[in-house]
Amino acid sequence: MPSTDDAAATWLTQEAYDRLSKELEELIANRPAMAKEINDRREEGDLKENGGYHAAREEQGKQEGRIVQLQALLRAAKVGEPPVSDGVAGPGMIVTVRFDGDDEDERFLIGSREEAETAGVEVYSGASPLGKALTGAREGDTVEYETPNGKTMKVTLVTAKPFSG
């Protein structure tokens, strides 16, 4: 079973970590330009009917939200090589599962949704109900989890292999 620290951490490849760090740097570097844009729009006059001002404020809010999200993600990130525990599901593992009642297997990465751009497969967060249920499961184990709509699902772990990028 992974440690509590591993469960709280977000596993990222070095490539994803670098990409997200660069995005964060660019957002922070853009703060003065965004403040100037808001100030310029404010000087255009009546704020009640100043669409440019309100749009700039909304964009600033989105950027600040993304900065906070990226800072938290990068602070909790475990970067680099995925786990080497073949056969045990968890963050950084490509898993193949079969849902109870389905004939087809599904394959996905347990990791950060930020990995989706580089993973080449669907990504489920380790904090999602399915990710939590599978974390620590061994090949052949069947686990249950509750979907957001309250339905209980069963899924069998077929394989778990380290993500190789």
Characteristic key phrases:
disordered N terminus, alpha/beta, elongated, 165 residues, five-stranded mixed sheet, 7 strands
**Total count of strands:** 7
Percent helix, as a range, is: 40-55%
Distance between the termini: 24 Å
Return the average pLDDT rounded to an integer: 82
**What's the order of the H and E elements?**
HEHHHEEEHEHEE
| Radius of gyration using CA atoms only | 21 Å
Strand order of the largest sheet: 5-4-3-7-6
Number of alpha- plus pi-helical segments: 6
> What shape does the CA trace take?
elongated
Q: Note the main sheet.
A: 5 strands, mixed
Beta content comes to 15-25%
Poorly predicted runs are 1-7
Structural notes for this entry:
The chain is α/β, with parallel strands linked by helices. It is built from six helices and seven strands, in the order αβαααβββαβαββ. Strand 6 (142-146) and strand 7 (152-162) form a beta hairpin. Helix 2 packs antiparallel against helix 4 (51-76) and helix 3 packs antiparallel against helix 4. The radius of gyration is 21 Å and the shape is elongated.
Architecture blueprint of SSEs:
Layout: H1 4-8, E1 10-12, H2 14-29, H3 31-42, H4 51-76, E2 77-79, E3 93-99, E4 106-110, H5 116-119, E5 123-124, H6 129-134, E6 142-146, E7 152-162
Parallel strand pairs: 1-2, 4-5
Antiparallel strand pairs: 3-4, 3-7, 6-7
